[in-house]
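Entry 12.
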Amino acid sequence: MFWIATVSLATSDNAVAQSADELAKQTQNPVASLISVPFQANWDMGIGVRQAIGTTLNIQPVAPFSLTTQWNVILRVIMPLVSQPTDDEDTRINGMSDTVSTVFFSPAGSEKLIWGAGPVLLLPTATNNSLSSEQVGLGPSIVALMQPGKWTTGILWNQIWRVDGPPDRTDVNRGFFQPFANYNLGGGLAVGASIEATANWDQDDVWSSALIFTISKVTVLGKRPVNFVAGAGPMIASPDGGADWKLRVQANFLFPR
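Predicted 3D structure (tokens):
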């Protein structure tokens, strides 16, 4: 059903195909003026001595606003629903993890270099203490990218420090780095690669990094444009007992303005 729908979008009408291409490039831009609600399912393979699988469903709404004629504000929220294995084969830890919210201030009408900067906030919203830092964190976040021709290339970075929380928990001191590149093939179809690297600066095993290769397609469900993404890749750095591979499926519901 997915491929039948995408073929009809790409070939039945050149205007629709052009619109799909425009939407595809906007989905690759974290500070685009596009309302979207992505649901991103991740499977972390090979955790612990049992080589178990951990799952995370990230609900990631994005809402842009016009601050002035020259500046936009983009609110991005990540709310993870997690199921983690334990040493006991019959037991898993399930629940909501901590929420990360970012506010980007971005100049409107940027052409060559597109960028945004603002605060990132960590909120202890977890329903299970094992899935939470139990701390409030705050720090800066920056994204910069270029979209020449069919390419989108850029990097996203943030750093979160603890500002409040129980003194008996390890302080949050965490960086995130995500260089990314996408090539648009036409008709809303794109391929891409990114590195998602998290650095826990105060731990012995600092890095947890995945190299993710993706293929994506903008199509239509009913009258709603949706960007479907499938991805997979190895963990190029992982703490002891961490995952070896990551698989990903995402549905990004788009609300063009």
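Annotation: Residues 2-255 form a domain with the Porin fold (CATH 2.40.160.40). The chain has a mean pLDDT of 92.
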